[in-house]
Design goal:
The chain is an alpha/beta fold and 815 residues long. The protein folds into seven domains: 104 residues, PriA, 3(prime) DNA-binding domain (GIY-YIG endonuclease, 3-Layer(aba) Sandwich); 61 residues; 79 residues; 185 residues, P-loop containing nucleotide triphosphate hydrolases (Rossmann fold); 181 residues, Rossmann fold (3-Layer(aba) Sandwich); 58 residues, Rubrerythrin, domain 2; 93 residues, Ribosomal protein S10 (Alpha-Beta Plaits, 2-Layer Sandwich). Helix content is 35%, strand content 22%. It has 27 helices and 37 strands. The strands form nine sheets. Strands 15-16-14-17-18-13-19 form a seven-stranded parallel sheet, with helices on both faces. A six-stranded mixed sheet has the order 5-2-1-4-3-6. Helix 2 crosses helix 3, helix 8 packs across helix 9 and helix 26 runs antiparallel to helix 27. Bound molecules: adenosine-5'-diphosphate (ADP) and zinc ion (ZN) (2 copies).
Length: 815
């Protein structure tokens, strides 16, 4: 009997590919191991074994594999199961999930580029002959492709050699140009817990009688901090002991070493040593979460900004790891939450592993392997959305912090998954509890809690009884009429800025657009310069006097005359962060102003620099886009100004109102985090808009009920599920005709629940035309049957020759 394996290849193939293996290989292979396999005419890919079996594929002849790359699976059964779920739910292939799920260094293929790792330390005797040969060759040429290596080593099976060099940290593969995110790590020690009893302490000192230097270190430590941790460098300095003496104490288990990543938040770190006591509200909430988890798997913690959700997370994490479980802590973005990470590292020391979107290929490999090995330093993984793909063995708890954030959804490429939703599924598969936390929950999650799918726990007091800021609305229509506006500032806002600055306090101003002024317009003929590749107007950037496209990066010098009619009467319409900054500089020439948006945070440590300057008080006013709304905890901000609520509210999307509410309330949460009450001013042309009103009265529930009603009336989530099909291609009429064909076919079955085809707001990007079709799926309609049908219609579509150049992109639960 012949033996076969099914392999998941990192390609958009509908099905697994079958290869033949020998009896021995079949006995050795297990699902989750990597194999190198031939594909197409001459390509070699690394794939993952999904199944070992004896069924001949019949329709094609199974080729033999090139070789086996692992002794043990690198992908767990649990991952394979999750991949299958994701591929089926989000309508993509398992190969696409595979690409997103494991570090690219694991997936050597014929196109892979191999380079020497900078600063690699190698001893010749650590390398095999083949490895050494390759190592030498790479010193002469900066990079090599796999087939060149095949020639060099004069053998076909070179992947193990490269894999081994990757593991030995000699070479890197597929090196992408990531900015290396290297937080500074400082080493601390503290006395081991067992000496916290006085008697134990005395015994220790007696015991160390024969080691006077070590004894001296302990004495010094005690003088510096009886229970907390101290920097090793400082301890060494104060006690006069050498590093070796301290190392000896660590090895004996008398001192515990802690590595703490520090950056801009040293100050906070010094403050928070050891655990805090929960206040009664936090205790109640924790108790309610415990109760909830007895009967339900998912709990939604609705806790207002600064209510102290993190401390509750800490308790739950502690409980989970004390039972020997792993914990996954999902965050929308790492760069903006260094403060929180510092806090968690402070509690859990080396048990915390961080998975960052800016990590290099090598760092990814390291994190992956640590989780796979279930090693001690991977008990708690803090990560962005892709960390749901890590090879967990025994998750006990998943926390999704800021669960309402849209960055949990991946837009492009496939898999277009939502990490919060996948987290809930992953939790089920691993029998882990899932806690969703937010000050402004998504409508979906709140709806689920409302309908007893999740348990709702409320925490509606700020920690230390700090008051929520006062929120006031400024009607700028009236201000314009009464000539009380200076540029984009109302007299009211200016007055409060002045007062705040006079009191040496700080201001945050939120404007939802970057750039100076989105568009340039001719006053004579109305023409505005367009991007030649995309259907958008170019945006004016004053700092380099350019017009730029935000979609493709096209740019040109600012125009003096209208390109259409030659008139020199040009004006700028709309306004962005840069213009706010410019106006502010003129209004407050003696104060330092910082700007935080995608343009100013692009460089290395861009965020950190700006945040640090604001933290230290060097910058007095911070102007920014949504970035300023995210979890930052500044102590000295009294005033938050929302420059214009209307740009948010008028966004053409069914979530615009929900999003506006969330954004405004989150940015408001940055004000007055200490005893003095903060103030938020919302400038708007529509002071009576229900969302603006609901923000000003902090009425989440009212917003929820009203939005829900709209969603029901207009057939949107959570009442209907959505699947969006985007067609794109270079040929305008083909895209158009294709979209019509597809929509017509779908309407045959789904009737009025098919919307479109429609051009999206930007219908051409990088010279490709876009057209969208939306399918609305009522609750009673089977999701899987809908997808099956859609799949079949798409199959017929792809078979039509005329539409070959038209690509289709499926987005399930588009955001
Ligand atoms: P949230 O995440 O809900 O916005 P945080 O967890 O950031 O709130 O808490 C707000 C502030 O209150 C933080 O500075 C935190 O250190 C402090 N805090 C919260 N709970 C406690 C506690 N039990 N004891 C001392 N400080 C606390
Ligand atoms: Zn003109
Ligand atoms: Zn463009």
């Amino acid at each position: 009997m012949p033996f076969f394996i099914n392999v998941i290849l990192p390609l958009p193939l509908e099905k697994h590919f079958t290869y033949s293996v020998s009896r021995d290989e079949a006995q050795f292979l297990r699902p989750g191991m990597r194999v190198a396999v031939p594909f197409g005419k001459s390509k070699i890919y690394t794939g993952i074994v999904a199944e070992v079996h004896q069924e001949d594929p019949v329709i094609y002849e199974a080729k033999p594999i090139e070789q086996i790359l692992d002794k043990n699976p690198v992908v767990t059964e649990g991952q394979l199961k999750l991949w299958r779920w994701i591929a089926s739910y989000y309508m993509c292939t398992e190969g696409e999930v595979l690409r997103a799920a494991i570090p690219s260094a694991f997936l050597l293929e014929s196109e892979t580029i191999v380079q020497l790792l900078k600063g690699a330390e190698v001893r010749d005797e650590d390398l095999t002959d083949d490895e050494f040969l390759l190592f030498e060759a790479l010193q002469r040429q900066s990079s090599m492709k796999i087939n060149e290596i095949v020639q060099l080593l004069d053998k076909k099976t070179v992947l193990p050699v490269i894999n081994s060099l990757v593991e030995k940290k000699v070479v890197v593969v597929n090196q992408e140009i990531y900015e290396q995110y290297k937080p500074k790590v400082e080493r601390y020690v503290k006395l081991h817990e067992r000496f916290s009893e006085e008697t134990a302490m005395h015994e220790l000192l007696d015991e160390l009688g024969r080691a006077p230097k070590q004894r001296e270190v302990i004495f010094t430590l005690f003088g510096m901090s009886a229970k907390g941790k101290v920097k090793i460098s400082e301890l060494a300095k104060k006690s006069g002991a050498s590093a070796a003496v301290i190392k000896a104490l660590i090895e004996k288990g008398i001192l515990t070493e802690l590595k703490v990543e520090t950056s801009r938040f040293n100050r906070d770190l010094e403050e928070v040593t050891g655990r805090v006591e929960l206040n009664e509200h936090q205790r109640t909430a924790l108790q309610e979460i415990h109760n909830a988890f007895k009967t339900q798997d998912v709990c939604l913690l609705h806790g207002i900004t600064s209510s102290g959700k993190t401390e509750i997370y800490v308790e739950l994490i502690e409980e989970a790891i004390s039972k020997g479980k792993q914990v996954l802590y999902l965050l929308p973005e790492i760069a903006l939450t260094a403060q929180l990470i510092a806090r968690l590292q402070n509690y859990f020391g080396q048990k915390v592993l961080i998975y960052h979107s800016k990590y290099s290929v090598n760092e990814r490999v390291e994190v992956y392997q640590n989780v796979l090995r279930n090693s001690e330093n991977a008990r708690i993984v803090i990560g962005v959305r892709s960390s749901i793909f890590l090879p967990f063995h025994d998750l006990g708890l998943i926390i999704v912090d800021e669960e309402h954030e849209s960055t949990f959804k991946q837009y492009d490429p496939a898999p277009r998954y939502h990490a919060r939703d996948v987290a809930v599924v992953l939790g089920k598969m691993q029998k882990a509890k899932v806690l969703l936390g937010s000050a402004t929950p998504s409508l979906e999650s709140y709806f689920n809690a409302d309908h007893s799918k999740y348990t709702l726990v409320n925490l509606d007091r700020r920690f230390g009884n700090v008051l929520l800021p006062e929120i006031q609305i400024v009607d700028i229509k009236e201000k314009h009429r009464k000539k009380r506006m200076t540029g984009h500032f109302s007299d009211r806002l200016l007055e409060e800025i002045r007062e705040t600055l006079d009191n040496n306090e700080q201001v945050i101003l939120f404007q939802n657009r970057r750039g100076f002024s989105p568009i340039l317009e001719c006053n004579t003929c109305g023409h505005s310069p367009q991007c030649p590749n995309c259907d958008v107007s170019l945006t004016y950037h004053s700092h380099n006097n350019q017009l730029r496209c935000h979609y493709c990066g096209y740019h040109m010098a600012m125009q003096q005359k209208c390109m259409a009619c030659g008139s020199d009467e040009l004006s700028t319409k709309g306004f962005g962060t840069e213009q706010v900054e410019t106006e502010l500089k003129a209004l407050f020439p003696n104060h330092k102003i910082g700007r935080m948006d995608q343009d100013t945070t692009r460089g290395k440590y861009g965020y950190e620099k700006i945040i640090e300057a604001f933290e230290s008080g060097e910058v007095h006013i911070l102007v920014g886009t949504q970035m300023v709304t995210k979890g930052l905890d500044f102590r000295n901000v009294r005033l938050v100004g929302i420059m214009n609520a209307d740009t948010l509210l008028n966004f053409p999307d069914f979530r615009a109102h929900e999003r506006s509410f969330q954004l405004m309330l989150q940015v408001a949460g940055r004000a007055g985090r200490t005893q003095k009450r903060g103030l938020v001013l919302i400038q708007t042309y529509n002071p009576h808009h229900q969302i603006v009103q609901q923000v000003s009265t902090n009425s989440y529930l009212e917003m929820y009920k009203e939005q829900l009603e709209d969603r029901r009336n207009y057939k949107y989530p959570p009442f209907y599920r959505l699947i969006r099909i985007s067609l794109k291609g270079r040929d305008y009429s083909r895209v158009n005709e294709g979209a019509d064909w597809l929509a017509t076919s779908l309407k045959n079955t789904f009737r009025e629940n098919v919307l479109g085809p429609e051009f999206p707001p930007v219908a051409r990007i990088r010279n490709e035309y876009y057209k969208n079709i939306l399918i609305k799926i009522p609750q009673r309609q089977s999701l899987s049957k809908t997808k099956d049908l859609l799949g079949r219609v798409l199959q017929s579509f792809k078979a039509i020759g005329a539409y070959r150049g038209v690509k289709t992109v499926i987005n399930v639960d588009p955001y």
